[in-house]
Write a structure and sequence with these properties.
By secondary structure, the chain is α/β, with parallel strands linked by helices. It is 34% helix and 28% strand.
């Protein structure tokens, strides 16, 4: 049994802590003691501890007695928190999806003899693991990842609920989207190039460009075409574009009755209630990965993975927490079980390239009924 500390007691962080507590000694931390107490009430097998990760000395002191750190803090805190963890010499699995380039911490991780796996969620995360594995045995020409988390009950106008803070969702809608086309890096406005896809049991969803490739741009330069798109119910994008074009996502404060108010802070406050996922509200995660390339026989092949996962009524765990969190807990256990011990910062594709790691994660998820259906055909 290992000692694990989980930073961040949000929907995904708490689900990861509960999952890990089935096998390990786990402490869950958060700045908000009320959030911690709520999780403790749900699952008494956890230790809880109030912690502000922005205070370096407090963070490093808190993690000093643990074998592994799992980081689920908000994205804007992620990079600094990761740096503090690495400097403390602790192995870490991270799902904070911070905007900075995690590979810039690689030298620091090697210096402190640390294994750091970043972007370890569903997408980025599991999609990278699948791509990394197939990149070892197929000469890949095209990679497409379609992914989204949506409520089962559609409520006008947005028909969307967020399992995490709206400010992190808005980041998806404002951060320029990067993809690779014919070997060239293309940068487009987020929400661009919308198109429709049909999914069994769901119907038609709308996909748009988002900045989900992240590390793949740097680690898989041999793949000429790579794209990630976010999925929403049709119509959602148009409403978001209206807000964006009208200035509701601007950060520059405006004066209202003598008070300076940031439009994005105002929008975040309003959308928090509109997008807040109810504690027992049913939602689902849908993902489709399409990999095309040439096998060692010279045949053109298509490998496809489909995921459809729903809210778990028995445990009260959201699908997004399951698909994101259990990928990270799979990798955490994989490291502790000795399947991956390289030192440095590793995005998931550099883990998935190892067949035993790929199989370990898929098997771990399948045990929790998070199932990626794989089909392969000659094209």
């Amino acid at each position: 049994m290992s000692k694990i500390i989980v930073l961040g007691a949000g929907m995904v962080g708490s689900a990861m802590a509960i999952d890990l507590a089935g096998k390990h000694d786990v402490t869950l931390t958060d700045k908000d003691i009320n959030v911690l107490n709520k999780v403790k009430k749900k699952f008494s097998g956890l230790e809880i501890s109030q912690l502000d990760v922005t205070v370096k000395s407090d963070l490093q002191n808190a993690i000093s007695k643990f074998d592994m750190v799992v980081c689920a803090v908000p994205g804007f805190l992620g990079y600094q928190t990761m740096q503090y963890i690495i400097e403390a010499g602790k192995d870490v699995v991270d799902i904070s999806f911070f905007p900075e380039n995690a590979l810039e911490l690689d030298d620091l991780a090697k210096k402190h003899n640390v294994t750091a796996i970043v972007d370890c969620g569903v997408a980025p995360g599991m999609g990278n693991i699948l791509l990394g594995y197939h990149n070892e045995n197929i000469k890949i020409s095209n990679f497409l990842c379609l992914v989204g988390g949506l409520p089962k009950i559609r409520k006008w106008p947005f028909e969307y609920k967020a399992p995490f803070s709206p400010v992190d969702v808005i980041e998806e809608y404002t951060r320029p989207a990067r993809y690779v086309e014919n070997g060239e890096l293309i940068v487009k406005e987020a929400l661009s190039d919308s198109e429709y896809y049909d999914f069994d049991g769901i119907g038609t969803l709308e996909a748009f460009n988002s900045d989900g490739l992240r590390s793949l741009i740097y680690t898989m330069p041999d793949i000429p075409n790579m794209k990630e798109k976010t999925l929403r119910y049709p119509g959602h994008i148009e409403y978001i574009k209206i807000l964006k074009s009208s200035g509701f996502f601007n950060k520059q404060p405006v004066e209202i009755n003598g008070n300076l108010i940031s439009p994005i802070d105002f929008t975040n406050k309003i959308l928090f209630n509109e997008w807040k996922l109810g504690e027992n509200e049913e939602e689902f995660t849908v993902m489709r990965i399409i990999i095309e390339g040439e096998n060692d026989k010279g045949e053109k092949v298509e490998v496809r993975y489909d995921l459809y996962d729903t809210y778990d009524k028995n445990s009260g765990t959201s699908s997004m927490a399951r698909t994101t969190g259990y990928t990270a807990t799979a990798v955490t256990n994989m490291i502790l079980d000795g399947y991956f011990n390289k030192k440095g910062v590793f995005p998931p594709e550099l883990v998935g390239k190892h067949e035993k790691c790929y199989e370990y994660v898929l098997n771990y998820l399948e045990e929790r009924n998070v199932i990626y259906k794989k089909t392969e055909k000659i094209i």
